[in-house]
Amino acid sequence: MYVVALVGNTVILQAVRVEPSLHEPMYYFLSMLSFSDVAMSLATLPTVLRTFCLDARSIAFDACLIQMFLIHSFSMMESGILLAMSFDRYVAICNPLRYATVLTNEIIAGLGFAVTARSFITLFPLPFLIKRLPICRSNVLSHSYCLHPDMMKLACADITVNSIYGLFVLVSTFGMDLLFICLSYMLILHSVMVIASREECLKALNTCVSHILAVLAFYVPMIGVSTVHRFGKHAPRYIHVLLSNVYLFVPPVLNPLIYSAKTKEIRRAIVRMFRRIKI
pTM for the complete prediction? Predict the structure, then answer.
């Protein structure tokens, strides 16, 4: 899965970089998504491979805090990028004549910076909230990487502040992103329904299929793992482990496969890129 995620997303990044035909807002956002997937994979890779390949069962506390911060930051970044991509689809379908003037390179760069800044600023207090807690219970984590819900359960002090802040971050970022993504697709459907031609209607909706699949691949596991962590205290341990692994490992694997399979421009660009390398 790591090989597929790293190679697939790196190929998409390279294709967008070298192919002039992909120098459009949609593919710039796709390259941001691929970058966040590569970063997420690299954030989990060291401890996962050490655990399963080298049987290394320990991690320094500060290293665990850094990994926790990076995993949650890149996850939030991916959520923001999916929201930006839904805005791209909304403008492309509902206001196609203004597409080039609304989504300029400066606007795209600004959205990318805002998504990145939001992730790091919002999650900056998280390591400090964990570090203030005394860890005097079992220091065994449930996963081969560090997550905030897993780490705060090791504390033998009041974790109300951590729990409230974690819920606030979840609702104000991931929750709002998902709400606005759903709203954008409601507006898209409303605009598409007034198109007289059934073929044109399907053609417009077909441009959204890849993004919808990417949204489902990201949010469904995330909602599952959040629900289990907060309300499934008596669920079997393997359920927690399975959902957390699906949440972190599946989206980086599926996203390049989804866009390569459903977007012919990406497929053509990848084929041309490899032909040039072969020559």
Answer: 0.92
pLDDT at residue 196 greater than cutoff 60: no
Residue 75 CA from chain centroid, whole number: 5
pLDDT in tens, 51-62: 888 888 888 999
Is 110 buried (19+), middle (13-18) or exposed (0-12) by CB count in 10 A? exposed
Task: Tell how far CA 19 is from the center of its chain.
Answer: 24
pLDDT, tens only, 201-242: 777 778 888 899 999 999 998 888 777 776 766 778 788 788
